[in-house]
Amino acid sequence: MKFGINCGHTKSGPGSGAVGRIVESDETRNVGYKLMDKFRANGHTVVDCTINSASSQNAYLSQAVNLANRQDLDYFISIHFNAGGGRGVETYTYEGRQFADALETCANIAALGFKNRGVKAGTGLYVIRKTKAKSMLIEVCFVDTDDANYYLTVGADAIAQAIYNAVVDVNNGTASEGNTAVDNVNNGVANASKDIIKAGQQHSINFTGNSIAVDGIWGSKTKANAIRCVQNAMNLDYGSGLAVDGIWGSKSNKALGNHYVKRGETQYMITAVEILLMLRGYNPSGVECPGIFGSGLESAVKQYQSDAGLKVDGIAGKNTIKSLMNV
Ligand SMILES: [Zn+2]
Questions:
Q1: 150-to-26, 35, 112, 203 alpha-carbon distances in Å
Q2: How far is the CA of 17 from the centre of ligand 1 (A)?
Q3: Secondary element (H or E) of residue 153
Q4: Is residue 175 one of the residues assigned to a domain?
Q5: Residue at which a domain ends, from 169, 189, 219
Q6: Distance 78 CA to ligand 1 centre (A)
């Protein structure tokens, strides 16, 4: 793929960024250039759309966009840091479209310990509105709160890796090839769904705190982490007080009861269902904590239900959840 990466803001003078405990225009470069290296090292083409000086803020913006639009980019990514006293990561897309990679960028950076502020409408942002390619602007965290101190301990490389993983995970064809049949999951999987399983394994580690191999294979340890995800979610949502031990026994089964999650809801059980789908090779279009049940998740649930021979209603109830855990 051909990526245009913009390290946000000029270095100094007109168009330079926010200054707090850290300097935005320094850190956009620290993250952005590491991200460029990662794309290049994996065979992608990168166009550096960074502008170091400009006569005004508007000139900086139009120079960056002109640079991007002169190329036939697949994706334009602009790196920024927020200011104004908040906490956490957020991304901006055209009309706030909940692109899987924008959601996953938030989730991956949040998994490093930042608050997840989600994907927002960036239509008013010049670089989002004016670039021809698909675009995403990332506000990594805040320069003027404890976020900045925490960022310095996490480091720019981990942020760049989190962004890289999200973008590559989603754009390696998972959107079109992600809905692999259950049989394929069990009988040796295509590379695309192997990548989804790997991402799901990492999410299961983040959500449960229990480490397993991130190898893209649905095995007994991955199955145990799938069960841990549901146990952890039931403790958080229903106060079930279960041991998060990865064993599906009568207490876990009773706690699940007739619970279900469906479109429009926000619950940790939705986080668990999203991770379960990924562990079985299906793309739920992002993992949030707590999870938000949107259209991407609904279609993944329906696809799974269809492949697994369950009632296809897009509602994740006990039969679907137990089938996903293979219990
Ligand atoms: Zn900025």
A1: 16, 20, 10, 21
A2: 5
A3: helix 146-154
A4: no
A5: 169
A6: 9
